[in-house]
What does this fold into?
Amino acid sequence: MREVKSNSDRAFRCVSRWIKECQGTHRCPSPPLNPALPSRVLDVSLSDHSVKLVEMRGEKGQYIALSHCWGKSRPLTAIESTVGGLKDGITMSRLPKTFQDAINITKKLGIKYLWIGMILLFYLKNSTSV
It folds into this structure.
């Protein structure tokens, strides 16, 4: 079998087909189409070169979640001293490759919001308001 690059159009057509097939044929409980969004997400729809942290107040919509092993490095976290800058926007080139890939996949699947545990869980843990 020929190897397919994960960011190729062919790979995304395959993933889109799998999602549609799962939604149409599987009898397992489906997640809601527009669940309540987490209180803080990244809006990936603004530009090809940056994303920004947005705070939700009960809005509903689709989002992708990235959860991964953080390791020892914390290249970007939302803490009180950095959250303002994250709300203004984050240049994609400043983000780790895993985050860039997750942003690109989210965009390519036509979804506006991305939740990344490493960035947003740290902020929730250290924030006085959730």
